[in-house]
Input
Amino acid sequence: MFRQSRPPDPDQDLVSRAKNGDTRAFDALILKYGDKLFGLVFSMTSHKEDTHDLLQEIFAKAYHSLPKFKGNSTFYTWIYQIATNRTLNFLKKRKNRAGVSLDDMESSVQQDPALIDTNTNANPERQSSINELQIRLNEAMMKLSESHRMVVTLFDVQGMSHKEIATVLNSSEGTIRSRLHYAHLQLQSALQDAWDERF
Amino acid sequence: MVINNRPRRLVAVPLLPALCLVSGLSAISSFAAPEPIKVEFPSGTACAISSPDPGFLVSVHSGASNSSKATWIGGSNRTSLEFIGDDKITRLCFFKNPNPDASQAALWADDFRSENPGALRAIAYSRTTDCTFQKWVTQIGDKVLPLGLLSVSFQNGIPPAGTPLVDSSGKIVGLILQPGSATMAYAIPAQAVHRVVQDIVAHRKLVKGWLGIALSPGSQIPRITGVLPNSPAADAGILENDILVKAGAYPIARYPDAVNALFYTVPGETTSLQILRNNKRIEYQVTPIAK
Amino acid sequence: MKPSVEQISNLLSQRSDLRPEEGYWQDFLREFHHNQRVEAASKSAPAAFLDRFRSWFSEVSPSKWAYGAGLAYATATIAFFLVPRGAEVETMPSAPVNHQVVPAPTMEQLEQLNLDPSTEGNTGEQVF
Output
């Protein structure tokens, strides 16, 4: 029986060059995945400074671990594994840290321009309602457990498939589906009042 | 001084279908036609039309300092127009209407609020051009405008500044400000003309409403970065870090929307401000003062 | 009435546009390279060797420790003489070579409808 061939990793060339010491190649990988990972980490932490520090840590870890990357998965999957692991570890530590309240994170969300739609053509009335819903949704997201928040972020925000998420989180598809289902139920309940007011 | 007699509207109505055929306009067109005139500024020609106050003509000047000098060009006649006042922000300028007969006054919409592209017609002194409202513009590049403008697309050339844009009911919804490109022009919305003319009539200049709230152009979110002590906003109970979501009839999603909304506040006229504080929407009644 | 799962999903998918402000990644890369330089400089030659020494031992099975000990002694002696003291760490370029550092644009508030591209507006807080 022939082994099913995998599509080549689109980042193979950059990874190879980076492994050989080409720092510009690694820079290119940072720029390629930077925005998506920013979105992932910020969705999980809701804190801009923490996001920045975590991203530095994630890319540093990837850089130092490059020699160990054998290409058994795509670079994309591999960097996401590093990012999710680091983020979940960070959040566990943050939970135990004194002085970080939901209020701190809420005010960070409200102040951060990254959350606002940059579409200059958006209907202001509709956009204003959506902004408010996004703020409430963010509050609800931060009340989910980290593992539930992670699957929602990867599935609904980042657009990954159940299978991809299972690979990244080293879990089964069944577990991922079940976590997602539960998380969606929680978010539906949390947004009920805000939904009634707006629509 | 000879002023060309123009056909009175009441007499023209029964002849309208024939006039439409002669002028080439579609017989089923629902666009009625205001009657703009050609004016000449030292910096160039423009259109002028009777303003929402029929005692005044309104046009748009280039921003040059001698915009107070305008001549009405009617056929072979040239008539100096009496300058009343202008507004530096909008570049709207006003002259005494030589023909203030209300029956000949142009019809103005109260405001233009559409968010969807739609057909309009530009009625210049020389010709009529179909055009399309595309979207609102509150920011160009990294420059935030002092009020929102209409972006209007044209297929066959851009009419001159001051050309009225009418909707399907024949009401003026905007005035051409200037071209943005070969096929697009910015236009001042009708509500801005209303806002300015009321002050021109009363004060010969625009007097903006002042609330005492500070906002930062660098931030996309319309968060109030400061409330001046003893200001109308402070008296009403608005706090620093409140997020503006609505001012008067204008919903606000970003800083440029806030700037547009606050352009329309009138000193002495109470307006409602809705803010978001700790995820709660709160409405305040605030009376701006003149500043 | 609760939003449907699809409606929740739609709201969440709008966050896929979440990204940092313009110019962020140029600064990020600068900091990243600086951190790598600092880390590399903090690993002196003997310490770097010790790392390699430890990692070699971590891959050796317990039953081979005796063999490994002798080999390790020999390796340490040779490395001590071969690795130069105070070796300079290769310096990275001060900025990423193929990325232009572009300052983030500052939004300006126009006071008038002067749409000339050369028109300058006001930066900083505006009072209304």
Q: What stands out?
A: Chain B touches chain C at residues 63, 88-91, 139-147, 149, 177-178, 180, 186, 188, 210-218, 225-226, 228, 255, 258-259, 262 (CB under 8 Å). The helical segments of chain B are 9-23, 190-203, 232-236, 255-263.
